[in-house]
Write a structure and sequence with these properties.
Strand order of the largest sheet: 1-2
Structural class: alpha+beta
Oligomer: single chain
Distance between the termini: 38 Å
Strand content: 15-25%
Number of helices: 5
Largest sheet: 2 strands, parallel
Radius of gyration: 14 Å
């Protein structure tokens, strides 16, 4: 939370967040996610890089799926979460 606060003190046009969930409990990740949503609703764009795909898709409006440094899929986060390839490869689930 402190790092995010320091990041927005300069009133940037874009806040870049790398690995929000790294080393944090699920509860703290949820709290930080709520904080990012509030910041975004106030008009600040946020670029989130996150290996926890489920968390990333819950937080994002739009997403890019990278494979060896190349964009292989992109679109609204809800579409990516419903995509069969994303579910199988990254979420470990497949909705029938």
């Amino acid at each position: 939370m402190c790092a995010i606060g320091r990041g927005i003190m300069a009133r940037p046009e874009l806040l870049m967040v790398d690995e929000l969930s790294l080393g944090l409990s699920p509860k703290l990740v949820a709290e930080l996610g709520e904080a990012l949503h509030k910041i975004n609703r106030k008009g600040l764009s946020i670029l989130l890089v996150e290996q926890d795909v489920a968390t990333a898709l819950q937080l994002a409006n739009y997403g890019f799926v990278l494979d060896t440094g190349r964009i292989v899929l992109s679109g609204p986060a809800s579409d990516l979460a419903d995509n069969e390839l994303v579910q199988k490869a990254y979420l470990g689930t497949l909705v029938a």
